[in-house]
Amino acid sequence: MAIVLLGKSICPICKNILNEGEDVTGFPHFIANTKDPLYIFTDSGVHTNCFLQQPHALRAMKYADRQHEVFMQKKCTVTGEQITHHREYLALPLLTSDEAEPLFKYNFLTFKIRNIPHWEEREDFVKTAERFIADGKWADLMPEHKFWERIMKYFQ
Ligand SMILES: [Zn+2]
Q1: How many whole angstroms from 36 Cα to the centroid of ligand 1?
Q2: With a threshold of 0.85, does the pTM exceed it?
Q3: Is there a domain that residue 48 lies in?
Q4: Cα–Cα distance between 60 and 57 in angstroms, integer?
Q5: What is the whole-number distance in angstroms between the Cα of residue 65 and the centre of ligand 1?
């Protein structure tokens, strides 16, 4: 869950400080793409009242919950088997919150790493991601994060 410093952290919805005694809803880290409109919620705390009035926030929470759910299930997309060791486990985060994006269907997929070469959508996924990046729709928070470089080495 987000680290919220009461009296210091800012609510991304109303832009006011989150103060002691206020009801705050926390988001985990669930989006790596700083260009995603829901990125403002990742790893943040928002006033619960602001949260309830902002439809984007409810969507964001739905995605954060989904990420937690797939993490708990740890099921391989390729074979459906349970992944029992963390070193065998690869999880795609929310890649895009835009349902019209072809990349959307690859959100939150989880893999047993050794099964990835047998995934029938592997090439499609790589092409779709490359198009998304080439269209300038992705930006890492820090250049050294190199999100796609780290992910792609498993899929090529
Ligand atoms: Zn607020």
Answers
A1: 20
A2: yes
A3: yes
A4: 5
A5: 21
